[in-house]
Amino acid sequence: MGFASPEHGAHALDLQHAQASSLPVTGVEQRYPPGHVVPQHSHARGHLIYASEGVLLVETPSGQWLVPPTTAVWLRPGMLHQI
Fold this sequence. Notes:
Elements: H1 16-20, E1 47-51, E2 56-60, E3 63-67, E4 71-75
Antiparallel strand pairs: 1-4, 2-3
C-alpha cells in the first residue's frame, strides 16, 4: 500500500514489505519535499512517525501534532491520519 501527493509530483511510498513482516517492529525511511501532503489513510499496524529534519504536521480525527526534528508521534493501528 502506498500514498502519493500528485500535486507535488511525489511517488507512492511502498509499505507492503513492512506491513507483511512477521517481525514485531519494522522501519521505513522516506524523505518528503517541503509542502508534500500524504492524504488521509490508515494502516493495519501501528506507526511511529519521526522527523529527523524539518517539521511534520500529523493530523488525525482526534488532534493535530507538529513533529519537530528528533521527535516522534505514535499512531495506533487503524488510526486515520494525514501528514
